[in-house]
Task: structure prediction
Amino acid sequence: MKNTKYDFESVVDRHSTNSLKWDLFEDDLPMWVADMDFKVAPAINEAILKRANHPVYGYTIVPDELFEAYIDWWYRRYGLEMSREQMAYSVGVMPSISSMIRCLTDVGDEILIQSPVYHVFYHVIEENNRKVLENQLVYENGKYFIDFDDLDENLSEVKLMILCNPHNPIGKIWSREDLDKIDELCKKHDVILISDEIHCDLTDPKLKYNPFKSSDNVVRCLSPSKSFNIAGFQSSIVQTSNNELLEKIKNQMHIDNSGSCNVFAATAVVAAYNQSEEWLEELKEVLYENKQFVKEYLSEELPVIKLVECDATYLLWLDCSELKVPSKVLSGFLRQNQGLFLSAGIDFGKNGDSFLRMNIACPQELLREGLLRLKAGIIALNTFNKGLY
Result:
């Protein structure tokens, strides 16, 4: 790995920290849930320690400084203009989406998502007693595309669509043309669009994502939690130019008690956006290098698994179709045989069942170990299946 100013090489022992990733299960090497195993940016760490030195941790308001940090970040990096009046604070993107489902749709309504997609979208829809309607993404020659004819037809059946941009798990940055077409179709059918843009900063170097344009039918969900590895502070915003829509959402979030701020959250967000941009740019280089490492390893050592072409997120979508093994079986075998936990593709939709999702946001020492275990597991599975591939 090339020289870096920040430490992306040290392996940090996260055991016994109540880590969802490392302490929930007993797997030796968890590469599933979407948080990073890198040390946080120094400016964030310093800001949190400074706040922690104050001996009172009482109820906390959301300062204007937090909203100003969001506004400046999106304008400076993406040319998107937002105002304080268009924003509301929330403890997280998924609590926000859950609140919006409750206030913008009725029990029994269908809500459109584009599969394969983040599995919690399914849960939050179904657990709110709504139904999932899928616009399945088209997979051809190792790339994904939107079926716009199907999208047009399905939008006529719903009040609400949830978009993932960049898309998890396929790692695709939606083009401006794709986003404009989605916007056009949502307006045609009078559908409100929720745009989950939580992975927006984590693109390949020199690439940038395209924010969904401001529109009266669009609500953005934004957060630094993935970009700066601060998901544990539980902080995000919703943003829309539609004042009536925003008030409805804010009222529902108030009912759901999801608009409060913990004592460290604002401190972390402001330090991230105002002081940690250089760290993020270096992180992107490290993630890109990790991605190339995986691509080369699979090509040379494990060609039966293909890396789906991607340009964003630290989550790789692995095409395991040549193995002809259901993803739950494959994921389970890797855990049992190698202690390696990758996400089963079926969790992201029925059309994901030939895939695994792999989190590569870790020091290359861990990544190399993960790939060795993946290869050993596939060899063991092949032996078990009597050499079928």
